[in-house]
Structures are given as C-alpha cells and as structure tokens.
Amino acid sequence: MEGASGIPADAQPSEHVQAPDVRLRVLLDQTDAGLAPGTAVGAGSQELARLYASPRGIPSARWVRTNMVSTLDGAATGADGRSGSINTGADKVVFDLLRAWSDGILVGAQTVRTEGYGPARTADEWLSMRAGRARHPTMVVVTGSGRLPETFLEEAAEGSDPAHAGTLEATPQGGAAEREAAGDVLVVTAGACPADRLADLRARLGRDRVLALAGERVDVAIALDALAERGLARVLAEGGPHLLADLVEADVVDEWCHTIVSRVVGGDAPRIVNTGGSVTLGLRLRPRLLLEAGGDLIGTWVRPTPHTAIGE
C-alpha cells in the first residue's frame, strides 16, 4: 500500500545500510515534500525519497521519467564515450533512488552495448522502498536489430529469474529481507528484427520475455502501453539519445530528470537527445526540483499540466 507521497506507507530507507556520504542542498522544491531552500538532504534519507515520489493528483498510475547526465558544455559522455565517466557521487545517489522508484528501466540496445548494462539490482539503502513490489525493477531493452551483447544475454538468462518477482516485505526495523536474483529482463523489438535473431532471443530468454511489436520500428507509445499491461507503470528511461528523442517525439514523457555536472570536457561528445537530423522537438517543461551537491545541479522538470496516460 502506498501513502499519498507515492512511497509505500510502511517503508523507510534501510537504516542498517550505510548510504554514501553525500549531502544535497535544496535550491528549489515544488514537490509535495515542500522543503525550504537551503535544506540539506542526506543520501538514503526519507526526505530525498519524498522529493522524488510520484506527484499527487496525476491522472493515471503510469508515470514516465527520463534520467540523463551531461556536462556544462552539453556533453552526454566523457572521453571514453560513456556517461559513467562523467557521473558523480551525488548523481549516483539519485540514479539509484530513481531505479528503486521504477517498475521498469527503459533503455536502448546501443546504451546496453556502450555502458555495459546488465539486469538491474536495487541499491541496498533503497530495498525497503520496494515493499509490495518485485525486489528489483525490470530491465526493458529496446532493439530494432535484436543484436545484444553476449554477456548481457548470459546474465539475463542465468542470473535473472522471473521467480524473483515475489514481493519484498519491510521489516519492523525499516529494513528488508535479503535480496535474491537480479531483476527480470524484457526485450522489446519489432518487424525489422531478423527472424533468426528473434527466434534466438526467445529461445534464450523465453517467449514471454521478448515482446515483438507490429511495424518495422519499435513504436515507443505502443511499447509503453504493453509495459503498463504487464504491471510496469512507473517507467524510467535512461537513454540513449535516440531513444529519448523517440519518447519526446511521441509525447509520452511526464518528467525529465537531469544532472548537470560542473565540468567542461570539449570534444565532439553526443548530446542527451539526438533526433538524427534537423528535427525540432517542441517539448516544454517547468522546473519541479533543483538540488546542488559539490557544484553539480540535479533537477527534475515536468509538464505545465499533467500528462494524460496513453489510451485514456
């Protein structure tokens, strides 16, 4: 059962787990938490969890968030071509919290290949937030080609078991039962995926864990409908830039989470959204939350009016 804040009413961040020693300072808070500017919020705290709870009064249980990081000069990656090389401790704290909030993590196959993704595991300090839900969010990979790294497929087939989806009960001390396997994996593809690759994915992962949509390309709006039907209502999109462009163009983003790292890297690094041409996207958002830690800015932006869920 959830409280009005969107956090399980009987769940608290696990007190027995040592959270990272990071303090975030509130600059702007228009969330339901209502914290005053200048308030210091600790990593792993209930206050931080409330800042990132789903907004009250949304027209549907579904909420689609993006989460990306970039530098002051707009680079989405460091010199090694990975976003992990520009992450900071504070960004990682929020990254872990957003994953704990989500039912499904939506990511493109190129990001899986570049960043070395595997099945998701909830950070220990946030395990109790998942009381009443699966222990870990489902990793949802969007691929047109069906080409995924061998290591990812091995982890998905061996280390991830749909049986893990039993609920996690909060303990009286605010902790949680010991976790088991990593989160489940779901692959979403479409008609452009070669038949032999589709068959291989189904053989290795199971037919229920491979969703083949109609049409040549993956329609992200239809994909989100399918995820919601599977109980994955809280979706966290972690990129890459082409997937984010598809989500914005389909008008399905409810909240934009973004860390701006106080570094300048230069070079020709990609931006966090890439339309692959001169297409101009018209999404406009208003700030909902802005935090500061070590010179880095961590914020969320939402639509001026609540977004109506697809299919309503």
The gist of it:
By secondary structure, this protein is α/β, with parallel strands linked by helices. It contains 7 helices and 11 strands. It is globular and about 55 Å long.
Explain the layout of strands and helices.
Elements: E1 23-29, E2 40-42, H1 46-51, E3 63-71, H2 89-101, E4 104-108, H3 109-115, E5 138-142, H4 150-158, E6 185-189, H5 195-205, E7 210-212, H6 220-229, E8 234-237, H7 241-249, E9 255-261, E10 286-293, E11 296-302
Parallel strand pairs: 3-8, 3-9, 4-5, 4-8, 5-6, 6-7
Antiparallel strand pairs: 1-2, 1-10, 9-11, 10-11
Total strand segments:
11
Helix/strand-derived category reads alpha/beta
N to C succession of SSEs: EEHEHEHEHEHEHEHEEE
Number of helices: 7
* Rg value: 19 Å
- How much of the sequence is in beta strands? 15-25%
pLDDT below 50 for ≥5 consecutive residues: which ranges?
1-18, 160-166
Which word captures the global form? globular
Helix share, percent: 10-25%
Give average pLDDT, whole number. Answer: 85
Give the strand order of the largest sheet, numbering strands 1, 2, ... along the chain. Answer: 2-1-10-11-9-3-8-4-5-6-7
For the termini, the CA-CA separation is 24 Å
Q: Please describe the biggest sheet, giving its number of strands, its sense, and whether it closes into a barrel.
A: 11 strands, mixed
